[in-house]
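sorry for the late reply, my laptop died twice this morning and i had to redo everyting from scratch. anyway the thing you sent over, i finally got around to it. pasting the sequence first so we're on the same page, its 370 residues, then the predicted structure underneath. double check i copied it right bc i was rushing
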Amino acid sequence: MSKYNDTILTTEGTRLATLAANGKTHYVITRAVATGDDLSYLTDGQLAALTKLPNEVQEGSIVEQVDDPSGSDGVIGTRVQFMNQGLSKSYSMNALGVYVKEDGHDQEVLFSVMTAESQHAQYMPDFADKVVLRFGITIFVIVGDKTNVTVKLDPDGLATIKFVEDAIARIPKPDMTEYYSKKESDDLLSKKVADNGDDSMNLNGKRIMPANDANMFHRSPDTGAVAESGNFPGLQVKGVSVATRDDLKSIEASAWRVLTGSSDFLNPFTLLYRIHDDQKYMDAVIGGTVKDSNSVGGKTVVDLTQLVEKITSLSGSIVNDVVSNGNSKLAFSGAKIVTPENKAFTIGATCSTLGTDNDTFFKISYSKLI
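ok and here's the structure:
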């Protein structure tokens, strides 16, 4: 997992931040760049003396301005995304630099430098295999007074997080108004028919005796348990059919269910599913937030070991704010839904699933329920 040290302001960056804090200048954060040069041997003073990031490899897209979590007006965060499209040679992003342009000046200046921690630089592969990697990072810098600073956003690099959130919002919620919980069903049935234990019963709050004792179920005189069985075909109360246990089981079996939690890939996730046990499959849709982008192939998206013995097939694909060339279908291992191989996802981004032909729900076939 990539990790970076605190941002160091250059000498020019300190000058501009001081002037902005006193309302004496205004400047624009224009771009962010990365280099493969290892600058870990430089002291903070030597980093501050830099006027240009050495051997720049690529430029990132500034896609969002982020406020300081502590609420300080003197700090701004810029969310930057780097992609490997068009990159001819792989490299490690050992240092990142932010450039600004002061009002009334034509020349950009290096404002700040951020170096990677030892052995934790983000690796950016080349594009030879046509597999896209997108790396996102938020760089916080001391700017003096954010009212005197403008962040220049790159419209072509804006993330598609809102698109994914809108797609999840369009998933229709099941209508649960016609379903009862087990407690509600028990309460309703107890109010309709109740055995008094003395060969009489309550029907809608009234105590009655059956007209024909031969049609009654009798208790054992020794144990008090009912040892007889029978059927009540077409049983109605006030012209309304009474639901049987099998009816209630059928309702429960076809109901939509929700499973929430966290996994190796998503934190948190929500799984909405409906079981069709007669055909050994379930309709499902997953939404969640990406937890980690490193080595995503084979990472657990959702673990179904408490529901099914094993998965036999999947028809779903995963959608994320990443440009994805090639197959993005979900995979499975045992009873676990896992991420596809050779796919890259943005940490903290929202993702969801799609079925065949972009259907809302995808299909999970299984051997048997647990």
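The first helix runs from residue 11 to 21.
thats about all i looked at so far, will dig more tmrw
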